[in-house]
Amino acid sequence: MMSNLKKNVTYLNRYRQIAQIMTKHGMGYFVDQIGLSRFLPKGRISGEEKRMPKRSLAVTYRMILEELGPTYIKLGQILSTRPDIVSKEYVEEFSKLQDDVEPVPFGQISVEIEKELNRPLSEVFESIDEKPIASASIGQVHKAILKNGDKVAVKVQKPGIERTIKVDLEIMRSFSGSVGNMMAGRSPYKPEEIVEEFAKAIKRELDYNIEASNAKRFGHDFENIKEVKIPRIYDKYTTKRLLVMEYIDGVKVSNLLKGGYGPEERKRIADIGAKAILKMIYENGFFHADPHPANIFVIDKDTIAFLDFGIVGKISRKNRKVLISLLVSIINHKSAKIADTIISMTNSQLKNRDEFVWDIEDLLDIYLGKDLEEIDVGEFIDKLTTVSKQYGIKMPQNLVLLGKAILMIEGIGRQLDPQFNVANLTRPYAQKMVKEELGPTNIIREWFENIADSGEMLIGLPDKIDNIITNLGNGEFKVGLSKNTSDSLSLHFEKSINRLSFSIVAAGMILASSVLFMTNIGPKAYDMPIIGLLGFVISFALGIGLIRGIMQSGKL
């Protein structure tokens, strides 16, 4: 009883706080519309309080999010990476949200660290600085030295943060429906969907094991790239609420933008950062989705380090193909092809497809006559996302994050070097990806995968036919087949399907072997590709076996 009462008081106080902060910033009308005014002391909004602020709504909402605290700051930061959900004005304004907040006293933080380590600090650390080197909404970071002398950064969640976020998420869910009714038709995304997507994202950020896993994958991807440093993770001391990683001694790019290094060094740093992001996207298919200036450190003029791996993006093989299709279509000015690719990829049902094609045509005019190296992929995806949103199309999240990541790294690059152009650096990566996806090796692999899939389907087909016949015989529909007829039919199907399987495999091998002969790749004998030659031999044997079986049976 007491526990429920305490919970109710907590929620009531938070509702009141949200209503008061929004009203203070001139959003009384909105508070009234979504039913929060009943939590105000007077229980209603006065006429004066319903007046909209003179400043822009984007600025107003940014100020409200800042004052509402960690959960709402995180919401704004995540929305700043999603131009498919909010307009450009909000993306730019929410990007200003600072995650630099008052730290929790070390006395409380040390208790949290010891709780996670399950031992005293003195058993793990030779020393640990009481003053944090960074304090964000969810956690704070302290510099420390391990017993073996390694310098580390200790990232620990603030006490009670999970509880705070849980309460805020439940409150968001409670009024998301009312917000949805007010915004009906303005966006393909419903507020309820945005809240649930945000809930998943912030829960991932609350699990430092996920960030540690991401960091280790980036570390593996860049282990042979000396210009890029990824901090080492100390698994032994890392938990869901505690992350211990290698300490990076460098300068934030955000500080470097204010001054430092000469023009040549700054140009070099911009190139290293951009190439690292492009490698993540085009080669690794796993990229840092929030590469803002505070998350990139400059160790020296030839080395940078990435930090904060809570938000990442992934490019699947399917999305790689979409990206290639878009690049080729941009170069060839194929607006209808781009439209159909987007519609198919998003499973959208458009009644006004022709209008969508025309809008993409207008967008493509910007790139008319340009070569691959002149196309800014990030800018194009960003503009395509904006156009798609107008037609109620939800672009895949990872594709949106990809465009945003390229735009962010290009923004940093231009601040470091006014002549910086990420499109010039994109060409070799994009060309390599196109070559790999459309090259003979990948085509052959896909053919064999398709053949294997078809084979599995065909092998299982006789059993499925047996099941269908059995079910029809036992069910409401009566089929006049005797058991002998059924067995004979099944056997006939099985033989036919086996022959069809052989035909598909033989045809696939002939095609693959032909590609190998045309491209002339792989080891050779008598100036002929051995693998291709072997493929023709096996195909010939399969063909002979198939013809022999047909001739013996006298029928297909």
Give the N-terminus to C-terminus distance in angstroms. 78 Å
Percent in helix: 55-70%
Count of the domains? 4
Radius of gyration from the alpha-carbon trace, in angstroms:
30 Å
Quickly count the helices: 20
Low-confidence runs of at least 5 consecutive residues: none
What is the arithmetic mean of pLDDT? 80
Globally, the shape reads: globular
Number-wise, the strands total: 13
Main sheet makeup: 5 strands, antiparallel
Structural class: alpha+beta
Overview of the molecule:
The chain has 556 residues and is of the alpha+beta class. It folds into 4 domains: 2-97 and 163-203, no CATH class; 105-158 and 208-247, Phosphorylase Kinase, domain 1 (2-Layer Sandwich); 249-438, no CATH class; 440-553. 60% of the residues lie in helices and 9% in strands. The chain is built from 20 helices and 13 strands. The strands form 4 sheets. Strands 1, 2, 3, 4 and 6 form a 5-stranded antiparallel sheet that branches. Strand 12 and strand 13 (528-529) form a beta hairpin. Helix 14 packs antiparallel against helix 15. The protein is globular and about 90 Å long. It starts with a helix and ends with a helix.
